């Protein structure tokens, strides 16, 4: 009896998406509103934030599914700050606990990026440039650029389902 062996390509592992890094000081809801207005999308806050079990970090996420073109747009915060209480190890007269702020990043390779816009569809370079040009027209955004997802070490963090 012959043994059949099926080999699957690595292309099934990755879905095609465009990733854009955005630098700005806006709140997440304000940026979602400006992107909706500028790009003609309808980003809405998901009922639950992204919560990774390996850390205490929760990241806000806004999504829109374009059913006509079968494209999912996701705006997610790259930075999560959590206030924690740290106790001192030595004993003294003024023994207190101090509050510290821990910072977590969704993509640690891009610590300076405030928000990530993930578009689950493979666009041509001209369409990506058109989207970037429209994003850069928003005066509150310092800069935005395309991120090459093939070189990311933490690309598993970009799976939002």
From TrEMBL:
User: Per its record, how is this protein called by name?
Assistant: IPExxxVDY family protein
Identify the species of origin.
Pseudotamlana agarivorans
């Amino acid at each position: 009896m012959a043994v059949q062996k099926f080999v699957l390509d690595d292309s099934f592992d990755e879905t095609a998406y465009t990733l854009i890094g955005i630098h700005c000081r806006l709140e997440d809801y304000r940026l979602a509103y400006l992107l909706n207005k500028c790009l003609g999308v309808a980003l809405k806050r998901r009922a639950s934030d992204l919560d990774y079990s390996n850390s205490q970090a929760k990241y806000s996420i806004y999504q829109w599914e374009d059913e006509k073109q079968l494209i999912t747009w996701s705006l997610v915060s790259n930075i999560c700050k959590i206030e924690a209480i740290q106790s001192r190890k030595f004993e003294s007269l003024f023994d207190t606990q101090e509050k510290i702020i821990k910072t977590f990043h969704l993509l640690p390779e891009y610590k300076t990026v405030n928000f990530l816009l993930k578009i689950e569809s493979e666009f041509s370079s001209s369409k990506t440039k058109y989207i970037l040009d429209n994003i850069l027209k928003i005066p509150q955004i310092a800069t935005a650029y395309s991120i090459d997802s093939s070189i990311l070490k933490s690309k598993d963090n970009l799976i939002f389902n």
